[in-house]
């Protein structure tokens, strides 16, 4: 299953969504997700990001992005919201041990030592473009 992430420049329903795959990057209009997405090779994507003023991700980063989809992307998003392993487990209907396994895999794939570093890397790579960096997901 492909995991789509909304652009951080999204305003309302007018959004572009991106998905990172082992072979490259897909881009689609969120208003028409049934339409075939645009497909970019890793090199084409790097050139596109450079042309629009972003930092091009190195090839290795694109590979990491494709490895963080599905469940690992969900876990990263919930970590970014500030949820504990137990809270992530409750949200995703997983045991805490399973969440810990997902977190270990996530840290390894992003090549970072901590949950905070995973969130930072997620922001740098555009994996968390549709969440807010200051939101915690915890109610007051």
From TrEMBL:
SUPFAM superfamilies (UniProt xref): C-terminal effector domain of the bipartite response regulators
Limits of the HTH luxR-type domain: 61-126
Gene3D superfamilies cross-referenced by the UniProt entry: Winged helix-like DNA-binding domain superfamily/Winged helix DNA-binding domain
Endpoints of the signal sequence: none
InterPro entries, A to Z: DUF397, Sig_transdc_resp-reg_C-effctor, Tscrpt_reg_LuxR_C, WH-like_DNA-bd_sf
Keywords from the UniProt entry: DNA-binding, Transcription, Transcription regulation
Record bears the keyword DNA-binding: yes
Name of this chain's protein: HTH luxR-type domain-containing protein
Lineage: Bacteria, Bacillati, Actinomycetota, Actinomycetes, Pseudonocardiales
């Amino acid at each position: 299953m492909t995991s789509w992430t909304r652009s951080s420049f999204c305003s309302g329903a007018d959004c572009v969504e991106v998905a990172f795959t082992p072979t490259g990057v897909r881009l689609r209009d969120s208003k028409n997700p049934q339409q075939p997405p645009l497909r970019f090779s890793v090199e084409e994507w790097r050139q596109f990001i450079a042309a629009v003023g972003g930092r091009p991700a190195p090839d290795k980063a694109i590979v990491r992005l494709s490895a963080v989809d599905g469940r690992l992307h969900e876990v990263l998003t919930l970590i970014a919201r500030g949820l504990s392993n137990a809270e992530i487990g409750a949200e995703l209907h997983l045991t805490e041990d399973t969440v810990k396994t997902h977190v270990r895999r996530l840290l390894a794939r992003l090549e970072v030592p901590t949950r905070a570093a995973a969130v930072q890397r997620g922001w740098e790579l555009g994996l968390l473009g549709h969440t807010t960096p200051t939101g915690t997901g915890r109610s007051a």
